[in-house]
Structure formats: C-alpha cells, structure tokens
Amino acid sequence: AQSVTQLGSHVSVSEGALVLLRCNYSSSVPPYLFWYVQYPNQGLQLLLKYTSAATLVKGINGFEAEFKKSETSFHLTKPSAHMSDAAEYFCAVREMNRDDKIIFGKGTRLHILP
Amino acid sequence: GAGVSQSPSNKVTEKGKDVELRCDPISGHTALYWYRQRLGQGLEFLIYFQGNSAPDKSGLPSDRFSAERTGESVSTLTIQRTQQEDSAVYLCASSTYGELFFGEGSRLTVL
C-alpha cells in the first residue's frame, strides 16, 4: 500500500527566501504524486501533479516539484516566498494505473516571516 | 453544479446523537472520497467509492461510521452515537484522472 511522509509539520521562511517542503512516498508501483494547498479558512486546491511525464512539474503561484525515483521524493519548492504563500501544504500519492485511493501526508504549515 | 457541494456546512450536535453529512460530487466524476480533518491535523482517509466497485472502507475509524453512495452521484456519511472525538471537518472530494476536487467541508462539533 502507498504512503506519504512529510518532514516538518511547521516550516518558517523569511519573505523572499527559498521555500522547500519535503515529501517522501512509498509505493509498490509507479505513483501519481500531488501537492495540495489549503489557505486559511479555505478548501483544498491542487497546486501541481506528477503523472509520469516530465519529472519537474510546475504548478500555480510559482511553485514546482521534482519527482526523484531514486530518492522516492517529491519535494515542493519556490524560489522566493511571498506573504500570501502562508498556508497548509499536503503531499499525496496514488498508485498509477490502479483503481486505488489517494493517500495524503499529515501536512506542513508554512509560515512566512516579514 | 460547478463544484463539489457539501451540507451542512456546520453541524453542532449532542454526544450520542446520529448525524448525516451529504456530498454532491461533480457530475461525471466516478470516484468519491471522504476525509476527516481534525483541528490542526492532516487529512485522514475514511472511505473511497469508485464506480460500481465495492467501496474501500479501510479508513473508517469504527463501526459507528458508515457511508453510502447512490450510483455515481450523492454520497452520505453517517456517524452514529457521536462522540466528542468525532468533532472535525469532514471533507468530500470527487475525482477524475486522479485529480481531487474538494468541497468546502462540513464542520461537526459534538458537545
């Protein structure tokens, strides 16, 4: 069965600094991978997804993530943090080509320091 | 409708009462999920429906929890004899090609 581990339940970065949110997955078959974002008092929305095409995936709001099979990782990055990036970020995995559920990590709350 | 719709948006109930939460998925989406999000915590998988296949109920925390789905449309999550630890936001999502579309959630408070 697939699983997801997000390192760090809280991450703080200064405005303008690099954002790096870590996600490692476990899957017995090639996965689909997702990052979702939940802004304060809002629902979850898709940030980006990997579905076996390019390993570097670009998403909304300047975020991107790189699928690294050898490291079983799908870390989320953004070169320069903005105050509006403060939110909860969730990594999720689904086993590719299988009629299976999507499993979420526990989430990382990103704090932006002025 | 254009998105996933959940009702009620807020529900306050007394311990021991039963509650029903409803989810209207996006039309045409064959997959439907229920998740639970406790205050300050991540998304806990509850149950997954995919087309006419038997639902994956592996995430339901106890036999007080059950869910049904009518065809590929509305789903209802039922919690019997509610307990205070059931207090959470219950999120529904429907899916096509693996991408989840979430509703706004139903916030359940058990007094």
Number of helices of chain B: 0
Percentage of β-strand residues of chain B:
over 45%
Strand percentage of chain A, roughly? Answer: over 45%
Uncertain ranges of chain B: none
Helix coverage percent of chain A:
under 10%
Largest sheet properties of chain B: 6 strands, mixed
**Termini Cα gap of chain B:** 33 Å
What class would the helix/strand composition of chain B place it in? mainly beta
Proportion of helical residues of chain B: under 10%
The whole-number mean of residue pLDDT values of chain B reads: 92
Task: Write the topology of this structure.
The complex is a heterodimer of chains A (114) and B (111).
Chain A: E1 3-7, E2 10-14, E3 19-26, E4 31-38, E5 44-50, E6 56-58, E7 64-68, E8 73-78, E9 87-95, E10 103-104, E11 108-113
Parallel strand pairs in A: 2-11
Antiparallel strand pairs in A: 1-3, 3-8, 4-5, 4-9, 6-7, 7-8, 9-10, 9-11
Chain B: E1 5-7, E2 10-13, E3 19-24, E4 31-37, E5 43-50, E6 65-69, E7 75-79, E8 88-96, E9 99-102, E10 106-110
Parallel strand pairs in B: 2-10
Antiparallel strand pairs in B: 1-3, 3-7, 4-5, 4-8, 6-7, 8-9, 8-10
Keywords:
heterodimer; A: 114 residues; mainly beta; five-stranded antiparallel β-sheet; globular; B: 111 residues; six-stranded mixed β-sheet; 0% helix
Care to describe what's here?
The complex is a heterodimer of chains A (114) and B (111). Chain A has 114 residues and is mainly β. Helices cover 0% and strands 56% of the residues of chain A. Chain A has no helices and 11 strands. The radius of gyration of chain A is 14 Å and the shape is globular. The model of chain A has no long low-confidence stretch (mean pLDDT 91). Chain B is mainly beta. The model of chain B has no long low-confidence stretch (mean pLDDT 92). Chains A and B meet through β4, β5, β9 and β10 of A and β5, β8 and β9 of B.
